[in-house]
TrEMBL record, chain A:
It comes from Gracilibacillus dipsosauri. Keywords: Cell membrane, Membrane, Transmembrane, Transmembrane helix. This is ABC-2 type transporter transmembrane domain-containing protein. One of its GO terms (cellular component) is plasma membrane. Residues 19-391 form the ABC-2 type transporter transmembrane domain. It comes from the Bacteria. One of its GO terms (molecular function) is ABC-type transporter activity. It is a multi-pass membrane protein. It is found in: Cell membrane. The chain crosses the membrane at residues 21-42, 187-211, 232-258, 283-305, 317-336, 342-360, 372-394.
Automatic annotation (TrEMBL), chain B:
PROSITE patterns: ABC_TRANSPORTER_1 (PS00211), ABC_TRANSPORTER_2 (PS50893). This is Sodium ABC transporter ATP-binding protein. It comes from Gracilibacillus dipsosauri. Residues 3-230 form the ABC transporter domain. PANTHER family: ABC TRANSPORTER ATP-BINDING PROTEIN (PTHR42711), ABC TRANSPORTER ATP-BINDING PROTEIN NATA (PTHR42711:SF5). Belongs to the ABC transporter superfamily. Keywords: ATP-binding, Nucleotide-binding, Transport. It holds the Pfam family ABC_tran. The keyword Nucleotide-binding applies.
Length: 420, 299
């Protein structure tokens, strides 16, 4: 057990201290901070620029309505009545005096507009103007038809559509409310992405680390001093802890950033993710399924890592693992909008899909405990089997140096660890 | 602290790598393992270290099996360099020392002693990949002995080293042997085995073809070497009964003779033919024995 901790702390420290780890983590943290402040950063650049648009029109009321509506919306666009000809105005756009020219003509009392611009690719000014004119047109048209503003408001008012669960007698409280569901959905999203990210990033790290030890042949010394099983798990836990530190850093920084912006966001951190209504049991399941999922894929990665003899071959062997997690991810994303489908139910018992699919069901549906228990039991059994097979492959695989990467290697490794 | 191998066999599928090997390696002794490439030396070592299981037979050390309970008392230097290329020498040796049950302080003290001893203290904070192959081998050697093992297994310890460093490591091995470490080492360089070992074992395609005390092996081999340097044509020596093989060189020849007595017959015939500058009777070298024994089993 003592040696387990030696390997564990060595793995943990060497990964945490690695330059690549520090740089990636720092970059990602910087990314989080920049993204959360992107609005303020963009504002800094945009401040001086107020877009002036020249308006050429013969109808005063159109101009006034447009000006009013833009001011009411506190838009960055400023319109200027241009009294010259359209050609003159266009020339002034080329000279840089105006950003664009808007020509508004009257057709059957309704406005029609042509937007002249030197920058055809930019659409932000154009769409603001378009929307404002659209409104003016609606107003004029409805006025013409003799409708009063109250009627118009009624037309545009959204219809009331509510969802209410049907609950059998005696089962009140067992059905999830809409708030609980959206909370669960948020948490499912978070866990799906975290697990996906963890498997891809840390699974790869484990496989690469083991392949490295094999390539440098230090493995032969390692397994002559301590047992392969304890080494394999020390490695899985060591890298898992590195991942935990990294994720906690991201979450911590994310939390602080969101806390700082609280005035803008209305509501706290948990509300931001829609987690304020989530029940404690869902949180517990989230942790259980995340950990089991990580162990399952990590054990598989460790086993595969011990099969290759060159670091270059790691990617090749990791492809099926990544495909598995992608499939699991797709099933769960599909399941989010349809959690009670047969498809998701079946997937929630298949080990490699169950961490995501079963958590999805637990979070979104009310399923009897035995179903969750069964799924967890299957997962644990699979992990144990993988660990036993993995340890044997590990012991044989580390002494095997070849170039091919195929199932044959798997058999060979098992054979090497056997007596005959 | 005897290491005992009894009827050890290792099969990989239909291929037999080690065939019915029985050995006894006494305590405080340097034991040599000889054999051509692929003879089964490394496989035997891996079985002793319990890295792979033997198909048949038993391996015991002081009557107990070797496993992770007593691995702290065993040192191992594998044939290929096995170190973390990107780790500094200090961190590397402390980690490997800790895995063999040393405390961090002890490992740190021991490694400094050894680096001084092998005249490479300047590499303490260098990455292993920056060192030359020979210096890497020294670090590898330290990793095998840092925890003062009772049983030390060295697989081709002197390969890739220049003569000065070979001497340095040989001295270290001898001293460890004197201080009570049982050492098993393999080599295909006969002179290393001759200089270091009292006991040896010769493997050929997984089978023992020689086993025992070095002096006894030489004595029981019977044949001797005779080197002659003389100013005359030496071809006639071939005709003398009891002369088995001759290898001429400029100004002389080395011949293998059946027994000591034959040398006198050769001398008699030689006298009067010319000026004799050298006439020397030698023990056979291990190399001769190896070639002969290995050759026999090829036929």
């Amino acid at each position: 057990m003592n040696k387990f901790w030696i390997v564990f702390s060595h793995t943990f420290m060497s990964k945490i201290k690695a330059k690549s780890f520090i740089i990636t983590t720092a970059l990602f943290l910087a990314f989080i901070i920049i993204m959360s402040n992107i609005q303020s950063i963009m504002d800094i650049f945009d401040q001086e620029e107020v877009d002036q648009v020249a308006v050429v029109t013969e109808t005063d009321s159109f101009y006034e309505s447009l000006d009013n509506s833009l001011q009411a919306a506190e838009s960055d666009i400023e319109i200027v009545r241009y009294n010259g000809t359209l050609e003159k105005a266009q020339e002034q756009v080329i000279d840089g005096e105006y950003s664009a020219v808007l020509e508004i003509t009257e057709q059957e009392q309704l406005p029609a507009a042509v937007y002249y611009t030197a920058d055809m690719s930019s659409t932000s000014i154009e769409s603001t103007l378009n929307q404002a004119l659209e409104q003016i047109k609606t107003e004029i048209a409805t006025n013409k038809a003799g409708l009063d503003p109250g009627t118009i408001a009624t037309i545009y008012e959204p219809m009331s559509f509510e969802k209410e669960p049907i609950v059998a007698e005696g089962e009140e409280g067992s059905v999830k409310t809409e708030e609980e569901l959206s909370g669960a959905r948020g948490l499912v999203y978070v866990i799906l992405f975290l697990l996906y990210f963890a498997v891809i990033a840390y699974g790869n790290m484990i496989a690469t680390d083991i392949a490295n030890e094999k390539t440098s042949r230090v493995m032969e010394i390692l397994i002559s001093s301590s047992s392969p099983v304890s080494q394999m798990f020390a490695k899985i836990l060591g890298i898992g802890s590195v991942g935990l530190v990294q994720m906690l850093l991201y979450l911590g920084v994310g939390y602080i950033v969101i806390q700082q912006k609280q005035e803008e966001l209305v509501g706290g951190f948990f509300e931001f993710f829609g987690l304020s209504e989530t029940s404690a049991s869902t949180f517990v399941y989230a942790i259980v399924f995340f950990l089991l999922g990580y162990f399952l894929y990590a054990t598989l990665s460790a086993m595969l890592g011990s099969l290759v003899s060159r670091t270059e071959d790691v990617q090749q062997l990791m492809t099926p693992v990544i495909l598995l997690i992608v499939v699991a991810f797709m099933i769960s994303i599909f399941g989010l909008s349809n959690p009670s489908s047969q498809f998701v139910t079946i997937a929630s018992y298949i080990p490699f899909f169950s961490p995501m699919a079963m958590f999805l069901r637990v979070g979104m549906l009310n399923i009897p405990f035995w179903e969750v228990g069964l799924s967890i039991a299957i997962l644990i059994i699979t992990i144990v089997i993988l660990a036993i097979v993995g340890a044997r492959v590990y012991r044989g695989g580390v002494l095997m140096y070849g170039t091919s990467t195929s199932l044959k290697d798997f058999k060979k490794a098992l054979q090497l660890s056997k007596k005959d | 602290m005897t290491l005992e191998l009894k009827n050890v066999t290792k099969r990989f599928g239909s291929f037999t790598a080690v065939d019915n090997l029985s050995l006894e390696i006494p305590e405080n002794n340097i034991f040599g393992f000889l054999g051509a490439n692929g003879a089964g030396k490394t496989t035997t070592f891996r079985m002793i270290l319990n890295l792979i299981d033997q198909s048949d037979g038993s391996i015991t050390w002081n009557g107990e099996e070797i496993n992770y309970n007593n691995s702290d008392r065993i040192g191992y230097l594998p044939e290929e360099r096995g170190l973390y290329p990107k780790l500094k020498v200090r961190d590397q040796l402390i980690y490997l020392g800790k895995l063999r049950g040393l405390s961090k302080n002890d490992a740190s003290n021991e490694l400094k002693k050894w680096l001084d001893r092998l005249k490479v203290p300047q590499y303490l904070d260098k990455k292993v990949e920056e060192l030359s192959k020979g210096n890497q081998q020294k670090i590898q050697f330290i990793s095998a002995v840092i925890h003062k093992p009772k049983l030390l297994i060295l697989d081709e310890p002197f390969s890739g080293l220049d003569p000065v460093n070979v001497e340095m490591l040989k001295e270290a091995v001898e001293e460890l042997g004197r201080s009570g470490t049982s050492i098993v080492f393999s080599s295909h360089r006969m002179e290393h085995v001759e200089q270091l070992c009292e006991h040896l074992c010769m493997l050929q395609k997984g089978k023992t073809i020689l086993h025992g005390n070095l002096k006894e092996i030489k004595r029981s081999f019977g044949k001797k070497n005779l080197s002659i340097e003389a100013d005359c044509d030496l071809d006639f020596v071939n005709q003398i009964p009891g002369v088995l093989k001759t290898t001429p060189f400029s100004g002389g020849m080395v011949c293998q003779i059946e027994s000591e007595a034959v040398s006198q017959a050769v001398l008699e015939k030689l006298i009067g033919k010319g000026f004799i500058r050298k006439f020397e009777l030698d023990e056979p070298s291990l190399n001769d024995i190896f070639i002969e024994k290995a050759g026999e089993s090829y036929e």
